[in-house]
Amino acid sequence: DTEVTQTPKHLVMGMTNKKSLKCEQHMGHRAMYWYKQKAKKPPELMFVYSYEKLSINESVPSRFSPECPNSSLLNLHLHALQPEDSALYLCASSQDGGLAKNIQYFGAGTRLSVL
Amino acid sequence: GESVGLHLPTLSVQEGDNSIINCAYSNSASDYFIWYKQESGKGPQFIIDIRSNMDKRQGQRVTVLLNKTVKHLSLQIAATQPGDSAVYFCAENMGNYGQNFVFGPGTRLSVLP
Questions:
Q1: Backbone CA torsion sign across A28, A34, A40, A42
Q2: What is the mean predicted confidence (pLDDT) over A69-95?
Q3: Could you give the CA distance from residue A95 to residue A86 in angstroms, rounded to a whole number?
Q4: Residues 6 or more apart from A12 whose CB is under 8 A from it?
Q5: I want to staple A99 with a disulfide (CB 3.0 to 4.6 A). Which of A76, A80, B98, B106 is the partner?
Q6: Would you call A105 an interface residue with chain B, using a CB distance cutoff of 8 Å?
Q7: Residue from B84, B102, B58 nearest A35 by CA
Q8: Cβ atoms of residues A2 and A27 within 8 Å
Q9: Which residues of B touch A (CB under 8 A)?
Q10: Is the pLDDT score of A27 beyond 90?
Q11: How confident is the model at residue B99 (pLDDT cuts 50, 70, 90)?
């Protein structure tokens, strides 16, 4: 099983709403990632969790709040977003056992629209 | 042929021909590189990787070439098939034991019948 599952697939929210994106993997991977991808652009790294601890935060605004409840789950809590935050949000996971073991497996993403 | 503009570069090839997708990377200290394929509506999918101590690596129908002198990667796809139509990204490792990858701008490959 090399599947990373993201829910919901689509999300529309207003600027005052609070919502959460969810990501799940059952590959025994210990690193999990959030990326943001705008249309016709490459994915941009937002956060990395390694062994359930935040290891990388790429200066993401505080209206995005990640959470890693356990090694299989990763959440991204959203609050007071702006229309420019509309994008595809991708989750990925990797073994996290050194360089050659960090090939990342991606989910299909959540397409977020902020009105 | 290849077109580069304000939007995603596009490479159009005939079915059965070989494709070559190029990528310039930024960090001369990068030690590990990955090529990903992203189909419409899906997340990126791993194709092939290469470490900086190699200049060539082959997979099934794909070959990655690394030229560290000019900081250039290429992905060669043999006998291109319609199912190869997608956006291709190179990604370079920026550190943190392979957790911090930066993706290149991507190239859209269109396979013509």
A1: negative
A2: 96
A3: 29
A4: A112, A113, A115
A5: B98
A6: yes
A7: B102
A8: yes
A9: 7-8, 31-32, 34, 41-46, 49, 51, 89, 93, 96-106
A10: yes
A11: confident
